[in-house]
Specification:
Length: about 100
């Protein structure tokens, strides 16, 4: 697959990356749009980065096991709006919403 990377001072480009594979209860999402607000600040400041975007909209292209989403579902990935039940939320890797 291709991904966008920051190469240096006001330089961005495409880089090859291995195709990710879903595992456990994860799904693989083909990202159609991902805002890059904080990443843009790094771009302007001349930073380098290989991982861009922290929210996304896309389509599920593979699942490791059946669950809440299926291949073909359109989804929004919002890591700061957690479910409260998955292993990341349970381990408090992402902040929990009030009431969950």
């Amino acid at each position: 697959m291709k991904k966008v990377v920051l190469l240096g001072e006001r330089q961005a480009g495409l880089a090859d990356a291995p195709d990710p594979q879903p595992k456990e209860d994860w799904a693989l999402v083909k990202v159609y749009a991902a805002p890059m607000r904080a990443e843009y600040k790094g771009f302007v400041a001349g930073g380098k980065a290989e991982f861009l975007g922290h929210e996304a909209a896309g389509e599920v292209v593979a699942v490791a096991q059946s669950g809440r989403v299926r291949v073909g579902d359109r989804v929004v990935v919002m890591p700061q709006y957690p479910c409260g039940r998955c292993p990341l939320c349970v381990r408090r890797i992402y902040p929990l919403r009030a009431g969950l």
